[in-house]
Every structure is written in structure tokens, then in C-alpha cells.
Automatic annotation (TrEMBL):
Residues 15-246 form the Radical SAM core domain. Signal peptide: none annotated. It comes from Kitasatospora arboriphila. CDD domains: Radical_SAM. InterPro entries: AKG_HExxH (IPR026337), Aldolase_TIM (IPR013785), rSAM (IPR007197), rSAM_sf (IPR058240), rSAM_SPASM_FxsB (IPR026335), Sulphatase_maturase_rSAM (IPR023867). It holds the Pfam family Radical_SAM. Keywords: Iron, Iron-sulfur, Metal-binding, S-adenosyl-L-methionine. The keyword S-adenosyl-L-methionine applies. This is Radical SAM core domain-containing protein. PANTHER family: ANAEROBIC SULFATASE-MATURATING ENZYME HOMOLOG ASLB-RELATED, RADICAL SAM DOMAIN PROTEIN.
């Protein structure tokens, strides 16, 4: 497709790498939805596509994505298996797709793999497969039965609603709940917006997407006269009002994107905001296409003429149509560029601008009036935006009641921990902004990057030790170095491929770049760092995308495991934030030892502690190797100011590493909750007996220890089950440990409950903890273990002054 409108300077700029890939695995569908853009709009190319993708296409697709990830050092790629209806491809094809992607992606590049389905065929067989490969499931559903049946029916007119609800019941089972990605609803203004909202939220989705129906100026959307001049805005505003009144119980991508863009941050959807498009489609024949929404414009609109067999993704990114969709403000119609809400609207979805004739896509959206009314009304409801993007408070949903209860039980699925992480990122942003005056040059670059490449900036600010550094600076601790602001700006610029030039500190002979690594340059003081689209240089030393590790360039090394990629952080000087000293740079043999131990520990967590695995994968980004402790003592720690990191001295066995990981991550999660919610009366200055420690603890210390030991108790319960009925020292040791930790934890829960200092939310947390530990109290451990624990357990006072 030729790009429409005037040429832009952006045409000569480096390509914007793709990070989102839609892989079509089946080109037909078992429903006949009359609003479907694939089968019911202008494009008819689906008729000539193979019904099912071949293994050869999947292999080449995975190789192309991996090649692109290596070329652009992508930290993660997001892949959606799509159709048609992807479940029609069958389990074998979907397994092959997952296997190929996991095989091909380079170490250090995380895979976010999802499938979007109408769910009619969803079964436990599919869900078991998805659980094996960590494939998240998004489901299309337009509301209650009346709303859904307006469009989403079988070809013979039968309703699909009951089958979808049955599938969602399966997906919401405890063993599959972590796979639930959310619901997608296409708006029909004839449907009652509140009834639709209530029907969707009743299904407890992790996220809801409301989509405008696909339309163009040639085929405009229905606008019943009785509903006024902007019915789509009014429909969404009715939902927004109810959603806000309910306390935003679930993320809604459209609303969250408007809130974010009004505060200068990135959008979460390509239909809003000015972020460059970074999505490409691979069809069942291996052809690369632009966004599927273009099928609503004209026949052949998404085509590029490129295939996975003959072309790289960089060539696809350089296609004129892709360039046009990545040109931001310059690519919009003149009347859009001068609009007061353009940075939130972004001209709307590209496909919705189409008009036959000379203007092509160089028009406002066919929903222009609705978008203007929607955005300005939301803006007026939420108040004025912050003037400096990086200082803006995060517009992120708080924990839902269900998510809080998950955490109270000791667990927390991916969406729950991601909500904690989002709040922590917002806190880090505010703390960093408070240091802006220390380095105006670095702060200016940070604010520019927040507008140009917010994902790159967020990736750096989410590094656990950024907040630890900011806290040291704000407290005025000795040795706190405000030059860290320049390190953050430099790292974000390198990630974004943005040209910059600024002085950065040299510490112990090296330039440190959070999330990236360190470059040994020698000397001290400051050095000038220059970034380009392909890398950076300091004092004549060049580091590019493909520069191998060596004596000078020491990158952060990551261990890629199925469903979890974790950094082994041994370069950042801020990592020394734990109560035990951090280890030095790991030699190769020690790195291999860590890699193997983490792999075994992760397999064990997934098998024996499935309630902890999804949240840990979502929130634990960093393991910092610590120096070994005294002989016979395992050493681990979590730092309150370093969400997402734990420090561990590698233990002798993988099961103990698994135990330390889940134990310390409990502290990380609860610390994030305490940052957001008051769980106890801070005026309570009593010291409480902790059964596992000789010294009394303040109330928060008892709460933290008890919460961490929920995981310890469940770990040892799993080990006892593994040794069920077996004799031997290992089995007796497991039974003794379970007897000890369940007794300690249950006693501490009751001390917390009886403290009289818990807030109502704190009482709810402790009640959940009690419920979580209760089942382990009845696991048989034998008289020997029970007697040993009785003998070692004293009954000190609950609280002492």
C-alpha cells in the first residue's frame, strides 16, 4: 500500500523496531460476527490464504522475530496468536508456535505470548497447553447475552454467549486463572453501556478493552439520531462514570490511555496517542501485513509485499505504510495537528481516517467528534494534568478486592503483582523528580525521553535499585551520588536509540548504566557519554548492539527461563542495598552455577508452589548475588526500597534456592502493599515476640516475618507430600521443618490478630493469612516432629514495652 499524504522528514529516520507481533495460525472462524473486519469489510485477501499455518512458516516467523530482537536488543517481545479463530488450528499447531518462539528468542529477551480467541472451543486440553507455555488468553465478548447476540453468532444464527461463559468459567479456575488476560468488547451504541459493563466486570477480568467498531469515511459508523451527535463518546462516558464511582475495579485500556496521555505519558493502545506503531502481522502464508484494522479501508490495504522467507523485519519497518503509521504528529491531517487534544487522541486509529480519493488516510478520524467529546470530558473529570511528564503521578488502578485477597493468602497472580509494580514505578518517578534540580541537563533529557520513548524510560526507572538510589539521595546519606540522574538518562537514551551527549560519573574506574551494565574506562570524576541509534561511546570506547562482553564492557546478564527472565545483577553499585554485602562480578563458572540453580529452582516453584510462580515471574526482575554467609547458614535479603529485587548467596541446593526466592519475594510484595495501604496503627510502639527470632520485633517486623513464612510453610508442606510415607533423614527433616514453621506462623498470625492495632484492611490481610495457614496444620508429620517442636517452643509474652 502506498502511503498517503505528504512525505515527511521521518522517512529518512532510523526504523522504529517492532515489539508486537500478531501471528495468524488459522484464517477461518467458527462464528459469523457481522462486525468482523476480517470477513465483513473491504479486504477479501483471507479467501486466498491457507487455512492453517504450516510449521515452516512458524519456524521462519520465530527466526525473523529473534533476528529483529537481536538487532535491536529488545528486552521483550509480545506475540499474539490470532486468526480467524486460532483455536481452530488445534493444540499441535499452537504447541509448535510456542516451541518455535521459545527456541529462537535470544537470551535476555522475554517472551510475552498470548492468544486471542472467541473461546467457543476453549477446553482444559487447550488450557493445560497454555499453562505449559505461559500463553495468556484474551477473549472477545460484547457483554450480556442480549448485547453479545447482536453480532457474535454462529453462521446459522445460534448464540455463542453460553459457550463463551462456560469457557470463562474454565479460565477462571484457580489452576488457570493466571492465564486470564482480559476481555475485548466491541461497542454497539444500541446496547445499554451499564449492562455491558456489569456483565463484563462480573467475570472478574484482569483488563477490559472497549473497541470502537471499525468504520471509515466511506462506510461511517451507525449514529442513531435519537442518541445525539456523539453517541460513542456518550456510551463510553457512561461506563467511565460508573467505573470511576466503583473505584476503577479493573483496568480499562481506553480510559487508562486517556488518563496517561493527558499527563504526557504513553498510550496503551494504538487507537490513541502519538506513539509510533510498533506492530506487525504475519499471516498464515508467511506474508507480513500492517495492522488488521486496515482491512476495513479497502481491498489489500494491509499488504506489504514482504514475507518471512525473503524479507527481514527491518525491511518491513521501512515500508512506506509502516513509516506513515510511525510518523507521529507530522503524519496527521492539518486540522488534527492544531487540535488541543491531539496528544491524547493522536488522530484516532489509523484505519478510521480512510476516505476514498486523494486524501486517503490524511483525514481526521471518522470518530473525531466522539473522541474530542470523550477526551475533554474525561480531562475535566480527572482535573488538570501535570506540566512535567516525568513528575506526573501514575494513573494506575489500585488493587481490586480480589487481588488484595490473593495477596492475603500469600499469593498474587501476574495482574496483581503488575498492579503493585505499576504503583512502585509511579513512586520511583516522583522520588526521581524530587532530585531534578541536581542535574538540570540530565533532567531535561529524561523529560524529553518521557515524551519520545516512555517505554525505554520506564524500563530504566523500574530497575529496583533506582528507587534505592533516590531514597539515599533524598535522605542525604553519606556517599549518596546525585550523578545517578545522569546515569538514568544515559541508560534510557541508549535503550531508546536516541542521540544524546552528557557527562556521567565514573565510579571505581567504570561508567555504570542501570539495567545495561558497566563500561570500564579507568580514572575517576566524570566522562562524556555519547549515544547514537546503534549504541554509545565513552572516552573512545565504542559499545554497539552486538559488542560482546569483555574486560571493558560488562553487561547485565540475564537468565531466560520458561515464563520468567531474571537479571543476575552484579554490576550496579546501588545493588549494595541489602543487609549482606553484594558479591563481585560473577566469573563464568559461578554464572553457570547460578543459571543451572535458577532453572532447577524455577521448575520446582512451578511444580510445588504454583500459587507463587505467576506473581514472582511478573515482579521479581532481579536477583543480586550476595557474598556467602558463615558456614552452614543460608543468606538472603530483600530491601524495602528495591521493589523487584532480592539478594541471595547461592545455596548448596536448588530446593533451598526456591525457598529463598519465594520467601524474600514475600517481603517485596508486602512492602509494596505497605507503601500504598495503612495496615496497622503506626503509633503502636510495642515490641512483639516473633517465634523464629530471639529478639522482639516491632509490629511491622512481625507482620513482614509472618507473611514471608506463609511461603516457607507451604514450601515444607510440599516437601512433606513429596516424601509421603517414606523413611529417611531427608523426610524426617522436612516433617520437622513443616511442624516448626506452621506452628510459628499460626502463632504469629494470632498475635497479629490480637494486637488491637490493625486497621480494617490489616484485619482483612491477617484473616486471609490465617485461612492460608490453616490447611497445613492438619498435614501429618508424626509424633517425633510434633514433640520436637513442642519442646523447643516457649510461650513468651505477646508484646513487651
Amino acid at each position: 500500500m502506498a502511503a498517503s499524504g505528504s512525505p515527511h522528514d521521518a522517512a529518512a529516520a532510523p526504523v522504529v523496531p517492532f515489539s508486537q507481533f500478531v501471528v495468524k495460525v488459522h484464517s477461518r472462524c467458527d462464528l459469523a460476527c457481522d462486525h468482523c473486519y476480517v470477513y465483513e469489510h473491504a479486504d477479501t485477501s483471507w479467501r486466498g490464504k491457507p487455512k492453517v499455518v504450516t510449521g515452516e512458516v512458524l519456524t521462519r516467523t520465530a527466526d525473523r522475530i529473534a533476528e529483529h530482537a537481536r538487532t535491536h536488543t529488545l528486552p521483550a517481545v509480545h506475540v499474539v496468536l490470532h486468526g480467524g479463530e486460532p483455536l481452530l488450528a488445534g493444540p499441535a499447531v499452537l504447541r509448535r508456535a510456542a516451541e518455535e518462539l521459545h527456541r529462537a528468542l535470544p537470551e535476555g529477551c522475554a517472551l510475552d505470548l498470548r492468544i486471542h480467541t472467541n473461546a467457543v472451543l476453549l477446553s482444559t486440553a487447550f488450557l493445560d497447553l497454555f499453562a505449559e507455555y505461559g500463553i495468556k488468553v484474551g477473549v472477545s465478548l460484547d457483554g450480556d447475552r442480549a448485547a453479545n447476540d447482536r453480532h457474535r453468532r454462529f453462521a446459522d444464527g445460534r448464540s455463542s454467549h453460553a459457550k463463551v461463559l462456560k469457557a470463562l468459567d474454565l479460565l477462571r479456575r484457580p489452576e488457570y486463572r493466571h492465564l486470564y488476560a482480559g476481555l475485548l468488547c466491541t461497542i454497539d451504541v444500541e446496547n445499554d453501556p451499564i449492562a455491558v459493563y456489569e456483565a463484563l466486570t462480573a467475570l472478574a477480568p484482569p483488563r477490559i478493552d472497549f473497541l470502537l467498531p471499525h468504520a471509515t469515511w466511506d462506510t461511517p459508523p451507525p449514529r442513531p439520531e435519537r442518541l445525539g451527535p456523539h453517541p460513542y463518546a456518550d456510551w463510553l462516558l457512561a461506563v467511565h462514570e460508573r467505573w470511576s464511582a466503583d473505584g476503577r475495579p479493573v483496568p480499562v485500556r481506553t480510559f487508562d490511555s486517556i488518563h496517561r496521555t493527558l499527563r504526557g505519558r504513553s498510550s496503551l493502545t494504538e487507537s490513541l496517542g502519538l506513539d509510533p506503531a510498533d506492530l506487525v502481522v504475519i499471516d498464515t502464508d508467511g506474508s507480513f501485513e500492517q495492522a488488521d484494522s486496515l482491512k476495513t479501508a479497502y481491498d489489500g490495504a494491509p499488504a506489504t509485499g514482504f514475507t518471512v522467507f525473503e524479507h527481514t523485519l527491518d525491511q518491513v519497518a521501512d515500508h512506506p505504510g509502516m513509516r506513515e503509521r510511525q510518523s507521529g504528529l507530522a503524519g496527521l491531517a492539518e486540522q488534527c495537528r492544531g487540535c488541543p487534544v491531539v496528544r491524547s487522541c493522536g488522530g484516532g486509529l489509523y484505519a478510521h481516517r480512510w476516505r476514498t480519493g486523494g486524501s486517503g488516510f490524511a483525514n481526521p478520524s471518522v470518530f473525531c467528534g466522539d473522541l474530542m467529546h470523550l477526551i475533554t470530558t474525561v480531562r475535566d473529570r480527572i482535573g488538570p494534568a501535570a506540566t512535567v511528564p516525568a513528575q506526573a503521578a501514575p494513573v494506575e488502578p489500585d488493587l481490586t478486592a480480589e487481588q488484595f485477597d490473593q495477596l492475603a493468602a500469600g499469593h498474587g497472580d501476574r495482574a496483581t503483582v503488575e498492579a503493585l509494580a505499576a504503583a512502585q514505578l509511579g513512586l520511583t518517578r516522583r522520588m526521581t523528580a524530587a532530585l531534578a534540580d541536581a542535574r538540570p541537563d540530565a533532567w531535561q533529557l529524561l523529560t524529553e525521553l518521557d515524551g519520545r520513548a516512555p517505554h525505554a524510560l520506564d524500563a530504566v526507572l523500574a530497575h529496583p535499585y533506582v528507587r534505592a538510589w533516590a531514597a539515599r539521595c533524598l535522605r542525604g546519606e553519606p556517599g549518596a551520588d546525585l550523578g545517578g540522574l545522569a546515569e538514568l538518562a544515559a541508560a534510557a537514551a541508549i535503550r531508546a536509540g536516541v542521540e544524546a551527549d552528557l557527562p556521567v560519573p565514573v565510579r571505581a574506574g567504570a561508567v555504570h548504566l542501570p539495567t545495561l551494565g558497566r563500561l570500564v574506562v579507568g580514572g575517576a570524576g566524570e566522562a562524556r557519554l555519547t549515544t547514537t541509534a546503534g549504541g554509545f561511546s565513552v572516552r573512545g570506547l565504542q559499545v554497539g548492539r552486538d559488542t560482546p562482553p569483555g574486560a571493558a564492557w560488562q553487561p547485565v546478564r540475564r537468565v531466560a527461563l520458561p515464563g520468567w527472565t531474571v537479571a543476575l545483577e552484579d554490576t550496579d553499585p546501588q545493588r549494595d542495598s541489602h543487609q549482606w554485602p553484594a558479591a563481585d562480578r560473577l566469573p563464568e563458572d559461578e554464572l553457570l552455577g547460578w543459571t543451572g540453580a535458577l532453572r532447577e529452582a524455577w521448575e520446582l516453584i512451578g511444580r510445588d508452589l504454583p500459587g507463587y510462580a505467576p506473581g514472582l515471574a511478573a515482579g521479581l526482575s532481579t536477583v543480586t548475588p550476595l557474598r556467602p554467609g558463615p558456614p552452614g547458614r543460608d543468606v538472603s535479603a530483600a530491601a524495602r526500597q528495591a521493589f523487584g529485587a532480592v539478594g541471595i548467596a547461592r545455596p548448596a541446593t536448588a530446593p533451598i534456592l526456591a525457598l529463598l526466592l519465594v520467601h524474600e519475594f514475600q517481603h517485596v510484595k508486602l512492602g509494596a502493599v505497605l507503601d500504598r495501604h495503612e495496615l496497622y496503627d503506626p503509633a503502636d510502639d510495642r515490641l512483639y515476640h516473633a517465634p523464629w527470632r530471639p529478639d522482639p520485633r516491632p509490629l511491622e517486623g512481625l507482620l513482614q516475618g509472618t507473611y514471608a513464612h506463609l511461603a516457607v510453610t507451604e514450601f515444607w508442606a510440599g516437601r512433606v507430600r513429596a516424601y509421603d510415607g517414606l523413611p529417611g533423614a531427608a523426610a524426617e527433616h522436612a516433617r520437622l521443618q513443616l511442624a516448626r514453621w506452621r506452628a510459628h506462623t499460626a502463632a504469629a498470625v494470632e498475635d497479629l490478630a490480637g494486637s488491637g492495632s490493625l486497621t480494617p484492611l490489616g484485619e482483612r490481610l491477617v484473616a486471609g493469612m490465617r485461612e492460608a495457614v490453616t490447611p497445613w496444620l492438619s498435614v501429618p508429620v508424626g509424633a517425633v516432629a510434633e514433640a520436637a517442636v513442642r519442646d523447643e517452643t516457649a510461650a513468651p509474652p505477646t508484646a513487651v514495652r
